[in-house]
Amino acid sequence: MGLVYPGFQTLPELFIQVFRHFKGQKNKFPLARKIAGQYEPISYDALHDDISAFAAFLRNRGITLGDRVAILSENRPGWYLSDMAVLSLGAVDVPLYPSLPPNQIEYILKDSGCKAIIVSNMLQLGKVLSLWQNLDELQDIIVMNRLDEPIEGVTELTAAKEEGRKILADTPDYASYQAVKPDDLATIIYTSGTTGLPKGVMLTHRNICENVKSCSGVIRLDEDDRSLSFLPLSHAYERTGGYYLMFACGAAIYLAESIETVSLNISEAHPTIIFTVPRLFDRIRATILKQVQNDSSVKQKIFNWALETGKKYHAEQASGKPSASTVLQHKLAAKLVYSKIQHKFGGELRYFVSGGAALPQAVGEFFQALGITILEGYGLTETAPVTNVNRPENVKFGTVGPVVDNVTVSIAPDGEILFKGPNIMKGYWNDQEATREVIYDGWFHTGDIGELDNEGRLKITDRKKHIIVTSGGKNIAPLPIENLISESPYVDQVMVVGEKRPFLAALIVPNFDEIRSYALENGIPTDNMAELLKEKAILKLYENQLRTISRKLATHEKVRKFHLLDAAFTIDNGALTPTLKLRRKEIRERFHEEIDALYKAMVYNTE
User: Fold this and answer.
1) Which residues belong to any copy of the AMP-dependent synthetase/ligase domain (predicted)?
2) Which domains does the chain have, with CATH numbers?
């Protein structure tokens, strides 16, 4: 069926048309959340009533066309409610990651000039209250959770809705959808960035609406579909794909309790589509292989046979038509192995959509071989965000697929990827200079390096600013090398370094479970991880891993030295962005002594 109402030009227009379509329908719902161990739906009618009431409250507090309102919250029903209420008034919402520290929240609230902020809980409220005296334009704070005791100037969301309902009882049209125009600003999303202060990406209603329409032409979605939402709604990827696209097609969004409970929630929600990032696939693959490793030798042989059969089947399918014997073996493998793997994902999953970072080709092919379809896509916050995605009928791992409808791609002479289309941002908030640096000659300059194959599929090779230039003048893209190293079962995370150095080195976060298992099998004490990682046998293990990997690389691409870290890169320790990308500059600065030591020591030759 696709879009419930294909003619929408603004997000409020989309919202009202979908609510009208489902008015009074008890068996359809847009959201479901976990209450007392069970998923409970929120009906279209109940959500619409809450939006109207909250919008009336906000309007009564002076929020109007063009005003900025921040949302500082984890994914929960109140996020969707807040977003829809703010946008219905023609106001502009400014989403904030709940992981942000107070100083970054202060910068964004000041820079955007927010008049109000909606926060989720006491932790987030505490951050804002500590800054309030510095925020001259911030007038109202609304908190989704109940307060233990009243706080001056802070309104509970429940009380705000009650106040809004009283206003609507006297003036029923008070919260009616405002005359929002397609080129009006819908949201300012501050990019987490890998260096420097965040920039506010201005996305209009047209930017987002056209992107939703383009995406709906790639993936068939309808009222029978369900997604599981766990990526942050503060990010454009989840917001456009996992929220607006799902809502526009009448699909149901199940909210995961947390990133840690995703496996459990998948089995409960039985999603048909999941929007995620490559990091999740690494974890799932590691779990599957660990379970297989603990099975009997017969079951291990059956799994490995099924995996190789799946790879052979898809390779033959890509080059023409699988042979009759391969088809027969594939059917048997599906019965013995693939069906059991699919059952772990709820039994009804049609697609994973992967974005936010590069999906290693080997990971995509692993899941494809087991009957799990991953559609890798690409885009940036500045492109609202989707520009490319693999099509279900023609997946090619190692690429992010062709462009979506209405988007044009070009490769500059230096390899930079450029785009044109109705999804390209209006610019950066309060920063015309930064806008001019990326939008000129009619094109948006992504800062990513890539190439197009003969079928128009885009392959990303690296970030322009991540290119390592060695002291010998070699230009090296670290990402493909990191993806190769990450294929090792003993590697959890890796960052390659070597700028202005004679060779490449790597900071490696081990897969701690695998290392402990290896140590136990080899009689090495595992009491202290930091000490374990200095053991000669462990270092030799990683030397051998890198030696094997180096055979696939050019001489100047080989990683010749490494340092093992005893703690992972995380959002909390500042090594990852909220979308789990490496903050390379911060990591280099934090581990500069360890990196320097690698280059002072004798070179280890992996050739």
Assistant:
1) 25-429
2) 11-272 (3.40.50.12780), 276-347+350-464 (3.40.50.12780), 467-600 (3.30.300.30)
